[in-house]
Amino acid sequence: MNLPGDLRQAWRTLCARPGFFATAVLTLTLGIGALGAIFTVYDAVLLKPLPFADAERLVRVTREQPPAQRSTISLQAFQEWRDRSGAAFDAIGAFSDDTRNLTHDGEAQRLNVYRVTPGFWDVFGQPLALGRAFGDEEENRSERVVVLSDVLWRNQFGADPAVIGRDVELNGESFRVIGVTSAAFRYPSDAQVWIPTFLPGDTTFHRGMNFLRTVARLRPGVSAAQAREIMAPITDWQARTYPDHHANLSAGVTELKAFVSGGVRQPLGMLLVAAALVLLVACANLANLMLARGQARAQELALRSALGADRSRLVRQVLAESLVIGAIGAAAGLLLAGPAIAALTALAPDLLPPYNTPAIDLRVIGGIAAVALATLLLFGLAPAWRAAAADPLQALAGATRGQTGTRAQLRGRRILVSAEIALAMAVLAGAGLLIDSLRQLEAVDSGIGSPQVLTASISITLPVRQPGDDNDEWAARAIGQLKARLDAIEARLRELPGVASVAIANRLPASGDWGWNSRFSVPGRTLDDQALAEYRFVSSDYFTTFGIPVEAGRAFDASDGTRALLPTEVLVNRAFATRYLAGADPLNESLVIFGDQPKRIVGVVADVHQAGLDAPPNTEVYFPISKAAVGDLAVAIKVDGDALAFAEPLRRALREVAPDVPVHSIRTMDQVTGATLAMRRFNMTLMSVFAGVALLLAAIGLYGVIAYTVGQRRREIGLRQAVGARRADIHRLVLGDGLRMIVPGLALGLVGALAIGRLIAAQLYGVGAADPRVLGTVAAVLVTVALAACAIPMRRAARVPPMEALRDG
Predict the structure, then answer these.
(1) How far from the centroid of its chain's Cα atoms is residue 797's Cα?
(2) Which parts of the sequence belong to the ABC3 transporter permease C-terminal domain (predicted)?
């Protein structure tokens, strides 16, 4: 066996047939490139371990308390978990998100800050590159210390090691830097700064204040399921001891890897299946090419066999050609996968967990090499064996008659084309369902009636809370200062030419953000244990600016929120009134939330799809923005004309009135609501690309077989024309050959389409997994493309000169 010699000979042979060579390589490149790109992303997100020490032992521990699922826990409840769960966890910590303004070199920058307990650092194995993390000592003394992320340390402090011990200013408070995390550590993924949970001046966190997210490291040999069993007696004790806060409480324990990637597991799995189907179409096409190539070479191989070459030598030579095609196709597929991966990550920058960056590495190269080898063995060996096993005398006799294939071989090629059509229809059906689903979602009324609205996020520094400060006094001072600043911002924005109204809120509507929620009561009514309402703080022109109708009563006015420290007036949405105030006039009702003083309902507003267009409206309560001691806010302006044209005037006006306030995320409301569909648009786009590739490959395969059949039947066609057959008769003859592949392919494709529909059912909205309209459209598209693939061979067949065809035959 001389492999280098076989490969050299294969290269020369293939170069002598550049059309076949290029088509085979391109077919394999498309199939492997598509699968390689998706597999690389799938591998990085779902298969590779997280880049943390003992990553397989890291878990999230969550509050399961209907209607809350995978939710946060109070400080007191967490401390009880920490103290009693030693049999399950080596370390357990908690964290909560925050934002602060970093003042550095005279510039204010908004930072993502996380308040964490000391155990947080133990869970991740003390991932510090410089200095140290804070421990129980700093926590107990409520010291203002800070750990910086590696990225922030490099970007803001020039990677200066002397930053340790230096003071930095966050929201006007001085924090001492005691550590910098390692470059590989990012948890949570957007964290820039970590500070202790307790800070000077913090008041006691009450048991009903659920704000902490819990992360832990399992003890060796303990599984997540066993940890849940260990946690069960702890949560049962909490439910019995504190029924007002912990009734029906249990603890969920989920592997951290599954927790951070759970939202993309099903979509990526769906796309991986689609890419695999595209590869199968490519494989069938490649097998068809190899069969055609083998039939065309039958005389050559027969002659070599007659001269003494044994079958193994001939098989080896044909397989060497397959190996060359596979190696070049795999390499080209890798080259195609690179930019495809970049396009994927650019298409979904905020959708994929960022812990492992998708990149072609040895795992991916090995996987693609294995796929290429399996493809060639599966679809190249049989044609090679068949070509090498042909009877020399029959092959030479067939060659003298102008025939290079048998009926069985032609039937095999037709079966392959039918399989290509079936697979293409399955992928095309998946794309059609996702396209129609997205169209249905885009037609949903979000509840926002104003089209020309521009928004921006701002971060206002609240007054520093000092040790010993009374909570009510601090809140009154913070609310007073914040109101003055918001009044100034609102007044300045109203002065902008073309601005019709201005709104300020703690959350943008229809942004995919559920916001904050709380339990409540309605005097004189008994509510179920799962009564929960989302609440938002909004300005008086909020509903006018966003075009949200006030259906009963009124919106807030300038006097609302000025009569007491806590708000005395609220608005509710239609969903709240329908669910909790059925049979009553909402304007005659009040509710108790935040304190014991009832809040009077002064208006009912229309529902908004706050959590996304595919989520039903939640029950909501609105408070005046003047009562929000919250610095992270959104401003919005309703304008005449193109909203984006106001981006720079908006930024400039905010800088003028509040130069110390960072401004970010300037977007139109169309962009805000559109972002909630990003994952669905990502899925639809990729599935459509795969469907296009599969359709192209199937069309090429069908064209190739029809063209080959016309060539084989050239003498028959000439004879038919000689005895009086018209052009339409020849068209019907060729079309009949095409339909014998198209119809079975459509029938099998329908089964595949139904299977794909079931697979992606969870990704659909407003359309059934077997929607007849979508399936009919897909079948029509496929038939149109298939008939177009038959058109050129059909036209050529009708133009065959009868005498020339008979003479060639």
Answers:
(1) 49
(2) 273-391, 689-802
- Residue 673 resides in a domain: no
pLDDT mean over 210-216: 92
**Confidence (pTM):** 0.84
Are 175 and 99 found together in one domain?
Answer: yes
HSE-up (13 A, CA, CB side) for residue 733: 21
Determine the Cα–Cα distance for residues 670 and 510; give it in Å rounded to an integer: 10
Structure confidence by residue, pLDDT tens digits, 548-594:
999 999 999 877 766 556 678 899 999 999 999 988 999 999 998 87
326 shares a domain with 268: yes
- CA angle at 462 for the pair 461 and 465, rounded to the nearest 5°: 130
Q: Residue 206 pLDDT > 80, yes or no?
A: no
Render pLDDT for 622-653 as a digit per residue (tens, 0 to 9). 999 987 778 889 999 999 989 999 999 999 99
- What residues form DSSP beta bridges with 64? 250
Rounded Cα distance between 615 and 609, Å, is 6
83-108 average pLDDT score: 87
Residue with tokens 């339409």: 728
Q: Does residue 505 carry a pLDDT above 70?
A: yes
pLDDT over threshold 70, residue 301 = no
d(CA 547, CA 606): 10
235 near 249, Cβ under 8 Å? yes
Of 307, 314, 302, nearest in space to 396 by CA: 302
CA distance 452 to 445: 16
Ranked by mean pLDDT, the top range of 286-295, 335-344, 382-391 is 335-344
Place of tokens 């022109």: 541
* Amino acid, res. 118: P
Total tally of structural domains belonging to the chain: 4
Residue type, 254: T
- CB neighbours of residue 764 within 10 Å: 21
Phi-psi region of 113 (alpha: psi -120 to 50; beta: other; left: phi over 0): beta
Radius of gyration of the chain (CA): 34
- Does residue 72 share a domain with residue 53? no
Residue 474 φ then ψ, to 5°: -65, -45
Type and span of the H or E element at 572: strand 569-573
Phi, psi of 186 (to 5 degrees): -145, 95
Domain end marker among 599, 629, 659: 659
668 φ/ψ angles, rounded to the nearest 5 degrees? -80, 165
Cα gap 214→330, rounded to integer Å:
45
Q: The tokens of 32 are what?
A: 């492997």
Q: How far apart are CA 446 and CA 617, in angstroms?
A: 9
Same domain, residue pair 803 and 763? yes
> What is the distance between the alpha carbons of residues 445 and 451, in angstroms, rounded to a whole number?
12
The domain in which residue 803 lies consists of 406-445+680-809
How far apart, in Å, do the first and last CA atoms of the chain sit?
A: 40
